[in-house]
Design goal:
This protein is an alpha/beta fold. It is 24% helix and 16% strand. It contains 7 helices and 8 strands. The strands form 2 sheets. Strands 1-4-2-3 form a 4-stranded parallel beta sheet, with helices on both faces. The longest helix is centred in the middle third of the chain and has 17 residues. The chain is globular, with a radius of gyration of 22 Å. The structure holds calcium ion (CA). The site of calcium ion has 6 residues, from loops.
């Protein structure tokens, strides 16, 4: 079972990507079965993998969110946050528990993210072999250019486990649980060179927005970061080279940077009725 963190539905060749190259996954799709009407049981990592591995929905295992369900400004919360479990409790029967008791060799290669104070390590949840080259810092850059996000070492360890199991005549269950493509984004230098100048849109900035109580817009280019903390708020400018903590707003000193930010924040987005740049009315 191969699982990837933050992989988009259309990021694989067999689902129509004309940019990413996924020949081996495409071959598995061609030679295997596709389930187009399946849904993830939750919209982010720990809850969805808790459901996948336990075969139960979030109200059964209580992993509703990563960390806490008590998020965002209190005055905008419409429901009392439901108590959340930080990990999958050991009394859940995981796929690995079930297959191990049926005589399978079981191994996890990569991200687990279901321990925490409420959960347990994969070794206590039916996995005999536990391998993770990203351990300790799954989302940070480890500066191993030949093994970005541990993708290659995780794949190799899983392949080795499967070959050994096959040679021993033992049925196996390999949970290949990649940290990629979740941030931090990394790639082999050769892959970067190959895809530079490809058909993906080339921009000299990165833009994103967050609708949490109010619409927050942000952009990055060079050493600059621009933030607008809510509709009709002034743009803030930070020089991340000298001020990574964003403590000194340079908007007054840098009108040219503000003007560039203004133009990006306006042109980088498409209006959508569900995501308006309007602050919610106070209740
Ligand atoms: Ca268990």
């Amino acid at each position: 079972m191969v699982y990837a963190d933050d992989l988009g539905w259309k990021d694989v060749g067999y689902n129509g990507s004309d940019y990413h190259e996924t020949p081996y996954i495409d071959r598995m799709a061609r030679e295997g079965m596709l389930f187009h009407h399946g849904y993830a049981a939750a919209g982010n990592c720990a809850p969805s993998r808790a459901s996948l591995l336990s075969g139960t929905y979030t109200p059964r295992h209580h992993v509703f969110a990563v960390g806490s369900t008590d998020r965002g400004p209190r005055q905008f919360q419409r429901l009392i946050p439901i108590p959340n479990k930080s990990g999958l409790a050991p009394d859940n029967v995981t796929l690995a528990d079930a297959l191990q008791s049926a005589g399978y060799a079981t191994g996890i290669f990569g991200k687990w993210h279901l321990d925490g104070k409420d959960g347990a390590a994969p070794g206590e949840q039916g996995f005999e072999v536990v391998f993770d080259s990203q351990k300790g810092s799954p989302n940070t850059r480890l500066d191993r250019p030949e093994d970005p996000k541990g993708i290659f070492s995780i794949t190799a360890a899983a392949g080795d486990f499967m070959e050994k199991s096959k040679a021993a005549g033992k049925p196996f269950f390999a949970f290949v649980s990649h940290h990629g493509i979740h941030a931090a984004l990394e790639a082999r230098p050769a892959s970067l060179a190959k895809f530079k100048g490809g058909p993906a849109p080339q921009r000299d900035y990165y833009y994103w927005e967050l609708h949490e109580g109010k619409p927050i817009q942000a952009a990055r280019w060079g050493d600059w970061k621009a933030v607008r903390n809510g509709a009709a708020q002034p743009i803030e400018i930070y020089d991340l080279k000298t001020d990574a903590g964003e403590t000194r707003n340079l908007a007054r000193e840098k009108p040219d940077i503000v003007a560039k930010a203004e133009s990006i924040l306006k042109s980088a987005r498409t209006d959508h009725p569900d995501w308006p740049l309007v602050n919610p009315k106070r209740r």
